[in-house]
Amino acid sequence: MPSTNKADKKAAVDAAAWMFNVVTSVGIIIVNKALMATYGFSFATTLTGLHFATTTLMTVVLRLLGYIQPSHLPYSELLKFIFFANFSIVGMNVSLMWNSVGFYQIAKLTMIPVSCLLEVVFDKIRYSRDTKLSILIVLLGVAVCTVTDVSVNAKGFAAAFVAVWSTALQQYYVHYLQRKYSLTSFNLLGHTAPAQAGSLLLLGPFLDYWLTSKRIDEFQFHFPSLAFLILSCTIAVGTNLSQFICIGRFTAVSFQVLGHMKTILVLILGFLFFGKEGLNMQVVVGMIIAVIGMIWYGNASSKPGGKERRSHSMSRNSQQKHGGSPESSEADEKV
């Protein structure tokens, strides 16, 4: 009975963490779309720097209130994380500029197999046949929804390659650092957010000028655009925190697979708030396929041996260390 209650509690917390991530991620996309499309604030990299600056302020306040305890993260590890994270942000922006929307979406889809490869190589994780097939169904559905015209050039391919690998490495590294140094999501944000905020606010205006030929100091703020900017930064605190929570509780692969539910929600909300001209049978069919794949993935990955099962040697070490099965130790992992 105690183990059942513990499993139920973990499932409830997992669901709450995931819903927190979905709500904040979809919300910030809608707000940023309005900020950029309606009010012309096209400085994406600088905006991300402001997001991390706001997140830094939140971690400082929580530390002063005693909600974040002191923790240690070596500077070498912090630098590697910032390197991957900033290349991810810059790479995605440049990839979107140099590639067609279709190829940009295809590149984003490849983050799942790349994340799988990282976990297979570094964590010795295995996947059941059903788990692999369910991932393919998710990818197919999202591709049908989002991929339209596809054209590629050498520099666009290079930008997409950097964006995909750096994003996959950054997300893998979140899970890795939390496990290795016993960091909570708040702890890890407390270490990484200030460094990301500083580096992106220094780099952002120059990169944004290169991408848009517009200077942020010449942007004419007024009340609506300033209100949306503040709202974007506020929601970003939850988005950044929920990403770390979800990757810490799950894995980068599960985060990517379930993350495509946000793509579906963004499409639906886009039709509701920004016009229904994009709603057609192809998009609807793609949504249905993707949702079926996500349900299948959840079922397949929850079965014994289906979800990222560790190799025999790592399982044996885990049993010796914790006195239990590898499945139970994975299920009991905390953020």
UniProtKB/TrEMBL annotation:
Q: Which InterPro entries match?
A: Sugar_P_trans_dom, TPT_transporter
Q: What do the Gene Ontology cellular component annotations say?
A: membrane
Q: Where is this region: Disordered?
A: 302-335
Q: Which keywords has UniProt assigned to this entry? A: Membrane, Transmembrane, Transmembrane helix
Polar residues biased stretches:
314-328
One Pfam family hit: TPT
Residue ranges of the TM segments: 12-31, 43-66, 78-96, 133-150, 156-174, 186-207, 219-241, 253-275, 281-300
Where is the protein found, in the record's own terms?
A: Membrane
Topology of this chain in the membrane: Multi-pass membrane protein
Give coiled-coil spans as residue ranges: none
User: Which positions fall inside the Sugar phosphate transporter domain?
Assistant: 23-297
Q: What PANTHER family does the record point to?
A: SOLUTE CARRIER FAMILY 35
Per its record, how is this protein called by name?
UDP-rhamnose/UDP-galactose transporter 6
Supply the source organism for this entry. Answer: Salvia divinorum
Q: What is the lineage of its organism?
A: Eukaryota, Viridiplantae, Streptophyta, Embryophyta, Tracheophyta
Gene that encodes the chain: URGT6
